[in-house]
From TrEMBL:
Protein name: Transposase
Superkingdom to which the source organism belongs: Bacteria
UniProt domain Transposase Synechocystis PCC: residue ranges: 3-89
Naturally occurring in which organism (per UniProt): Neosynechococcus sphagnicola sy1
InterPro entries: Homeodomain-like_sf, Transposase_14, WH-like_DNA-bd_sf
């Protein structure tokens, strides 16, 4: 989901600080959640800015830090399918990964190859 525009963020904060209106009413007026209004007010109070914060969190890949092993798998077996790469990974590490995880990693590393029949 995209961040709210800076203009909307400023209007929300200005509306709340301008008068006797509750956070709940501001949220209804701008069709955002109450927690969004609270977060914007807190950010404005603590940081003095309303610019969207960078995204944080997310899960790290099971393949993170194992680039050398994965590159050697691709080098040794360039004609493997995704399911074969996943099976080979499970055999070598004892850890199963999905085909979509393997595909994303191969694409990020630029190791997608045309398979021969």
């Amino acid at each position: 989901m995209r961040a709210y525009s800076l203009e909307l963020r400023q209007r929300i904060v200005n509306t709340y600080t301008a008068g006797n209106i509750s956070i709940r009413k501001v949220a209804e007026l701008f069709q955002v959640s109450k927690s969004t209004v609270q977060a914007l007010l807190k950010q404005h109070r603590e940081q003095g800015t309303l610019f969207p914060l960078p995204a944080t969190g997310g899960r790290t890949s099971h393949l993170q830090g194992q680039e050398n092993l994965l590159r050697s798998m691709v080098t040794n077996h360039p004609d493997y399918t995704l399911s074969e790469y996943c099976e080979d990974w499970a055999d070598q590490t004892g850890e199963w990964v999905s085909q979509s995880t393997m595909c994303r990693w191969l694409q990020q590393q630029g190791l997608t190859l045309k398979k021969t029949t």
